[in-house]
Amino acid sequence: MHENPSDFNTEASFPRFAEPIPNITVTIGRDALLACVVDNLKGYKVAWVRVDTQTILSIHHNVITQNPRISLTYNDHRSWYLHIREVEESDRGWYMCQVNTDPMRSRKGYLQVVVPPAIIESMTSNDMVVREGTNVTLNCKAKGFPEPYVMWRREDGDEMAISGENVNVVDGEILHITKVSRLHMAAYLCVASNGVPPSISKRVQLRVQFPPMLSIPNQLEGAYVGQDVVLECHTEAYPASINYWTTERGDMIISDTSRTGDKFETMSRNTGYTKYMSLKIRNVGPADFGSYRCVAKNSLGETDGLIKLDEIPAPTTILTTESLYNNRSKGRKANKKHDPMMVGDYGVEEWKENGPSIRHPPGAFHNGAVCPTAHTVTVCCGVLFLLHCLVSALTSQLQYQRSQPR
């Protein structure tokens, strides 16, 4: 077949679209611009039409639609621009640029209107207070275009114990917790996103009620007369408990922090549903020994714990080997001569105790040697044996203390 030159000349005389109409994506509320470029338009006219509704929006230089958000601009009888101000979701669809040739010529482009996610408050859970051991369901519903992806996570970033597993994120609109415990008490975030900024979240505070529980690090404390001692107690409760200390007789202990030097000083520090309590007893006296009770109460119950304070012997001062050596040296006569049996590095000395002097040459000390007791020093120890003698002296002192009646 051979082309007819007259047909070619006829085609060249008609308008033609210089480029396709691009599909555009616009976030709701912003402005959209659709461009139609026609070459060789001559005396023909351009029109914009909404395809799905077959609504004529403009014809050549005139806007036909009654929609006040739509306007038209053109340039050099070649470029024709359709403006849509503050686009709405209803503006989403196909738009056609037509030229009134016979037959009609046209190009079309798609306007995509995207919507950032938003939480539907009426269908989303609010802050909740539940009893420990019950089942809890948190719901979150979001809207947007494209349809948002919804997930749950803890605000503090900790893992969630869900269905026996520890997870960081739960996908979906529903967060179900079976047999909720105090460990689940936290703020939870429902996060919705669909690729259109910004993502959005809602904070739901979950509070779990339970009666007070109590733990005591040391149920038996010891102190000597004149010492300061601190008793400690840890509690857990929600709602927050009322905590206090009592004496053995049941009297509540009240301290005045504005006055210094009081016999008792109480202190408490809260961290979430846990509370640390301490009772400081200054200058412990004989009347202070006995039992002290830590008490915690809330609307769901109460609990208490007992701490016993016992008396222990006051510590005694034990002279070091160096001080013993110095004291003994001072006890000698000033004009006493050095013993000829003294050996420089070993430091062997002479001591007398109601009898002749006892001398020990270097190397004479061994495990069977007699060492100082708590009351009497009978043998001098050389430098190499001083450590052994000190341990023996401490042992003898401890045995002596234990044998004395309290």
UniProtKB/TrEMBL annotation:
Transmembrane segments: none annotated. The keyword Repeat applies. Residues 15-100, 117-201, 211-299 form the Ig-like domain. It is found in: Cell membrane. It holds the Pfam family Ig_3. Keywords: Cell membrane, Disulfide bond, Glycoprotein, Immunoglobulin domain, Membrane, Repeat, Signal. One of its GO terms (cellular component) is plasma membrane. Its main location: membrane. InterPro entries: Ig-like_dom, Ig-like_dom_sf, Ig-like_fold, Ig_I-set, Ig_sub, Ig_sub2, Neural/epithelial_adhesion. This is Ig-like domain-containing protein. It comes from Anopheles gambiae. The lineage of its organism: Eukaryota, Metazoa, Ecdysozoa, Arthropoda, Hexapoda.
